[in-house]
Amino acid sequence: MKVMLLALLLVTGLMVNAEVLFEDDFSDGNADGWLEWSSGYAANAQYNVINEEYVLSNSGTGWLPAASHNGDQSGTMSTANYSIVAQITPVNCFRAGILVRGYLPSFRGYLCVIIPSQNYFGISRLTSEGPQPITSINMSLYHNQTYWIRFQVEGTSLSGRIWQGTLEDEPASWQLTCSNSQYAEAGRIGCFCCNFGSDDKALLNVRYDNISVSSITTNLDSSTWASIKSSSI
Question: What is the pTM of this model?
Answer without folding.
Answer: 0.86
